[in-house]
Amino acid sequence: MTRSEPAKALEHIRVLDLTRVRAGPTCCRVLADFGADVIKVEAPPGVDRNEGMSGPRHGYDMLNLHRNKRSLSLNLRTPQGRDLFLELVRTADVVVENYRPDVKDRLGIGYDALRAVNPRIILASISGYGQTGPYRERAGFDQIAQGMGGLMSVTGLPGQGPVRAGIAVADSASGLYAAIGILVALSERDRSGEGQWVQTSLLESQIALMDFQAARYLVEGEVPQPAGNDHPYSTPMGVMATADGHLNIGVGGDGQWRSFCRAIEREDLADAPEYATQEQRFRNRPTLKPLLEEVFRTRKTADWLARLEEEGVPAGPIYRMDEVFADPQVGHLGIAVPCEHPARGAMRLVGQPVGLSRTPARIERPAPDAGEHTAEVLGAIGLSPADVAALKAQGIV
User: Could you cite one Gene Ontology molecular function of this protein (predicted)?
Assistant: First the structure.
C-alpha cells in the first residue's frame, strides 16, 4: 500500500507577506515551511527604491529566506493595486508587514482597513521600535537594536568596548516572536472567530533575548559587564586554548567539578578549599583560570574532548561553518535540507530546528522569481490572463 505524504500543519492558512530584508521574511519562512500558503507581495521593478537589500535574487540569503513561497507582483502605491490587495485579504488568514509604522496607513492597508474587509484577518507588524512612542517612525536595523537592547554592552572581552554579535540576532528573534504571536492569534481565533493585531519590534525582541542579564538588572539592580568567553557567573565555563586550537567547557556544579578535575588529572584541585564550591571558584576565577589554561595547552583538542566525555563533563569543539555541517550529529539531525533550484541546481538550505512527529516542516519549492505567480494568484480571485496583461502594461503588477 502506498504511504501518503503527512499532512502539512498549516496548509489551511494563507499568508500575505509584505516583508523584506530579514525579520519579516524569517517569520513568514516559519509559516511556509510548515505548509502555509505564503504569497510574497513584491513591487514591480523600479517601484521599490530599496529593492535588493537582501542581495541577489538567486543569492544564498534570498534563497534561504523565501523558499516555499509564491510571488505576486503588485504596486500598492496605486489605487488599483491597493484594491487588488484588499480583495486578496478577503480570503487570507494573516498579513505580515515590517514597514515603518506610518507606511501601512499611508498605503491604506492598516489594521482597521484590513479588518473592515475581513474581521478574521490577523495582521502581524514588525517594526524597529514599536507601533507607538517617540521612536515609532525611525527606521530599524539589527545592529542598532543590538546596541539599544543591551547585547553589545555584554559582548566581547572586558575593556575591549562594545561588540556586535556575528549574526542578525534582533532581526531573527523578532521574526520568530512574530511567528509565535501569529500562532497564538490563530489559536484564539478558533474560539472567538475574530482576528487581531500582533505587534513586535527589533528593540523589544532584543531586550527579551537578554533574558537573565536583563532580569539581573531589573531584580538586583546590577549592570552586567562583558565577560568575554567566560560565563557571567559560573566557572570554569568558557573557552580554553589547547595545543592545536580551542574548545568549550561547561562545568555546572560541584559534582561536575570533581569529574572535571579527574579528566584533567588534577584531582588536587577538587579538594582545594579555594575551589571547593561554585561560589568559591567564581570568586577565585582570576587565579583558577590561568592554572587551567596551562593544563589545557598540553594536549590537542580531540584528546581533551575524549577525556572530558569519558568523565561526563560537558565540552565541545568550536567549529567553522564547514566543520559544523561535517559533524556526524549535525548530519544525523538533517538540518541541512536538500533543495533543487532551476537556476542554481542542487543545493542545501537551513531547515527548521523544530521537529513534529506527524506534520514536520518541509522544503518543497525554491524561492520564487519576482512575480512568478502573479497570474496564478490573481486568477484565483477572478482575473483573466488578459486582465493581468492589462495591469502589467499599466505598471500595477
Answer: CoA-transferase activity
Amino acid at 33: D
Candidates 392, 344, 333, 396; CA nearest to 367 is 344
pTM of the model: 0.94
Residue 80's pLDDT is 97
C-alpha cell at 183: 500562532
Considering the domain boundaries, does residue 233 fall inside one?
no
Domain boundary among 283, 317, 351: 317
Q: Residues 171, 211, 268, 369: which is the catalytic one?
A: 171
Residue 220 located in a structural domain: no
Q: Comparing 53-62, 191-200, 383-392, which segment has the lowest mean pLDDT? A: 53-62
Report which of 199, 305, 206 is spatially closest to residue 246, judged by C-alpha positions.
305
What is the rounded CA–CA span in Å between residue 15 and residue 302?
48
Q: Is 171 a catalytic residue?
A: yes
- Is residue 386 in a domain? yes
> CB within 8 A of 28, min separation 6: which ones?
15, 17, 19, 38, 40, 69, 96
Vertex 205: Cα angle to 190 and 321 (nearest 5): 105
Q: How far apart are CA 192 and CA 152, in angstroms?
A: 42
| 175 and 310 share one domain | no
